[in-house]
């Protein structure tokens, strides 16, 4: 059992991919109050931003226990089998049915459907990578786990959420809904890749699908991770593609179950990786191929947030403040609320911590374990039982600095207002516009900064964070190579909750540069700067589409960058440029006596790297100058919420 547990943790870590009865702290009551100021919903590629003035539908603000007695004592796993798609490709599927030791019950059962790229053969080690959760099985749910096309034991070539893979989803649902042991009702579930397939499958509106429970799902492939700020991700993406490819070379169970199908799967995985998708995609990204490095149809098809309006089933979204998809998880709630029952839970997690590796810390502050929340969600919306899932808090967020979960009625927070803080010549950060005095701060332009930082932990999905390195919890090391602006010691707590934006004026001596912006909480008692969030932007991709940006009370707080070939702007040496940087959302309280620090540098290697060809042509090294003053009023816009909300 110990070896099994260790192996489960190890595999889940590589995959990059849970009940207290007391009430969590609340900053909302029912009915929900109207917003103090109108908010513009962030746009997408296909939709401009739009204004709305009221919060999401009211919900009870307190968590409660849900722990019904199990109805089954054990489970039965059906041997690996295959589903044939309409083009002849066979997908591997594993089924686990509820059972009682003395008397096997063949159902029918409601289904939990999981679609994975991480090999069904490994799923039995942990639900995080596709295994049946004993809690769900004991309450009468059958679990169906399918290897998506080109992965695990399935035939075909993998293309990471490509059109053909997405076409398979509805055929898999149809198969699961019509089996003799199925009662035709399906709940979609999964972590990471499995959570993304959950959202994409829900958009196909198959009548058998009744609810969804995605954990750490991607929303916008380009902006969330692959090309954040217009720079290729050099940490997670190569490791992830290598991992999926490697596991696809191990269809051992498929070969044993059906040698012809298994061997065909192995050969198609290898040839597809080398000639079709994995290797060519990585090379094109590194070389700055415009079809890959710029936003376009390739990324739109792989960005499920684009079609959020097609989701018509109740959806519970789980995310993390330091997750790979930190940007999009609250956007899922914003896009779905008002049209379907929707809830949002954001913990203080990296990617693997949200999956429970080594732990997500739940239950805490009355928030139950994730699988108990999932059970309640599916019991109500899949089985149709009146168990109060609709009365769970709309939004539950961990507040850094407060170190507890807080519930609210909406995201963005109904009381949030943008507050602009301006960079000053003396490196202070004040609400006042810059004085007549101007200043320039020169920084080395090199792709080396951020290597040891919280970003390294975040963009390796939390794996690097398992190492006891102080730079993961303290930005002081990175600040030594940055230009740092700081508020005076705060006279009162400062509660921020939502997206942020930095407006940075700068010049460069080369034809390309970038700016990395870090937000941290400085504690004078310890001398440490706790990382809160960060943003990254390439200068050539600095164009902003205001029609898709988030504007609140007349102030832009979340810019929308097109990142298309057509939107590229020239970078002229020594000519001032305004860099409007999207800083990913967070929730944090900077305590009285602390200071909020904003650190500027020219790279964040853990998060993004300029494409190799572009860097060589336009100059990999140089000097950047950050400008401050009346003519160049650099600033940061914070999402400030009244302390009374806490």
TrEMBL record:
NCBIfam families: CocE_NonD (TIGR00976). It comes from the Bacteria. PROSITE patterns: PROKAR_LIPOPROTEIN (PS51257). Keywords: Hydrolase, Signal. This is CocE/NonD family hydrolase. GO terms for molecular function: hydrolase activity. Residues 1-20 form the signal peptide. SUPFAM superfamilies: alpha/beta-Hydrolases, Galactose-binding domain-like. InterPro entries: AB_hydrolase_fold (IPR029058), CocE/Ser_esterase (IPR005674), Galactose-bd-like_sf (IPR008979), Xaa-Pro-like_dom (IPR000383), Xaa-Pro_dipept_C (IPR013736), Xaa-Pro_dipeptidyl-ppase/CocE (IPR050585). Residues 375-637 form the Xaa-Pro dipeptidyl-peptidase C-terminal domain. It comes from Paraperlucidibaca wandonensis.
């Amino acid at each position: 059992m110990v070896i099994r547990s260790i192996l489960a943790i190890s595999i889940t870590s590589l995959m990059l991919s849970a009940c207290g009865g007391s009430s969590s702290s609340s900053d909302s009551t029912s009915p929900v109050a109207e917003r103090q100021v109108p908010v513009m919903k962030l746009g997408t590629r296909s939709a401009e931003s739009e204004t709305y003035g009221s919060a999401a539908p009211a919900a009870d603000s307190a968590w409660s226990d849900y722990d019904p007695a199990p109805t089954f004592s054990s489970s039965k796993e059906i041997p690996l089998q295959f589903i044939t798609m309409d083009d002849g490709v066979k997908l591997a599927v594993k089924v686990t049915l509820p059972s009682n030791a003395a008397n096997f019950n063949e159902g029918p059962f409601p289904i939990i459907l999981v679609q994975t790229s991480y090999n069904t053969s490994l799923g039995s080690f942990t639900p995080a990578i596709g295994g049946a959760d004993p809690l769900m099985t004991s309450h009468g749910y059958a679990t169906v786990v399918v290897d998506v096309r080109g992965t695990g034991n399935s035939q075909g070539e993998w293309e990471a959420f490509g059109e053909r893979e997405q076409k398979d989803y509805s055929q898999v649902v149809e198969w699961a809904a019509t089996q003799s042991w199925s009662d035709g009702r399906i709940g979609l579930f999964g972590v990471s890749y499995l959570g993304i397939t959950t959202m994409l499958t829900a958009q196909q509106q198959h009548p058998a699908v009744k609810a969804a429970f995605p954990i750490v799902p991607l929303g916008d492939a380009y902006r969330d991770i692959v090309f954040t700020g217009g720079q290729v991700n050099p940490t997670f993406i190569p490791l992830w593609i290598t991992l999926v490819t490697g596991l696809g070379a191990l269809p051992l169970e498929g070969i044993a179950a059906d040698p012809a199908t298994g061997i065909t799967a192995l050969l198609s995985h290898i040839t597809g990786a080398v000639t079709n998708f994995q290797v060519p995609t990585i090379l094109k990204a590194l070389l700055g191929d415009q079809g890959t490095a710029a936003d376009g149809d390739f990324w739109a098809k792989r960005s499920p947030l684009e079609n959020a309006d097609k989701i018509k089933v109740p959806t519970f979204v789980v995310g993390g403040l330091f997750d790979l998809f930190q940007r999009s998880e609250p956007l899922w709630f914003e896009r779905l609320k008002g049209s379907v029952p929707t809830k949002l839970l954001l913990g203080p997690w990296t990617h693997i911590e949200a999956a429970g590796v080594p732990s997500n810390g739940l239950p805490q502050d009355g928030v139950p374990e994730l699988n108990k929340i999932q059970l309640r969600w599916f019991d109500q919306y899949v089985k149709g039982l009146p168990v109060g899932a609709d009365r769970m808090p709309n939004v539950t967020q961990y507040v850094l600095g407060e170190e507890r979960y807080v519930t609210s009625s909406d995201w963005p927070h109904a009381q949030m207002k943008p507050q602009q803080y301006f960079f000053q010549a003396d490196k202070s950060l004040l609400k006042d516009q810059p004085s007549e005095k101007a200043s320039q701060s020169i920084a080395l332009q090199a792709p080396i900064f951020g290597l040891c930082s919280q970003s390294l932990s975040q963009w390796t999905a939390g794996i690097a964070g398992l190492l006891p390195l102080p730079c993961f919890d303290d930005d002081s090391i990175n600040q030594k190579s940055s230009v740092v602006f700081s508020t005076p010691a705060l006279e009162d707590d400062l509660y921020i909750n939502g997206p942020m934006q930095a407006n940075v004026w700068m010049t460069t001596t080369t034809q390309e540069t970038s700016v990395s912006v870090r937000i941290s909480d400085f504690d004078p008692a310890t001398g440490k700067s706790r990382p809160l969030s960060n943003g990254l932007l390439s200068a050539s991709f600095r164009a902003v589409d205001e029609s898709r940006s988030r504007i609140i009370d007349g102030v832009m707080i979340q810019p929308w960058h097109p990142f298309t070939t057509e939107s590229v702007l020239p970078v002229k040496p020594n000519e001032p440029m305004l860099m409007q940087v999207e800083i990913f959302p967070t929730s944090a309280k900077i305590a009285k006596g602390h200071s909020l620090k904003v650190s500027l540098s020219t790279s964040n290697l853990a998060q993004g790297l300029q494409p190799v060809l572009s860097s060589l042509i336009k100059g990999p090294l140089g000097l950047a100058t950050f400008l401050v003053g009346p003519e160049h009023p650099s600033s940061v816009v914070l999402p400030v919420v009244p302390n009374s909300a806490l």
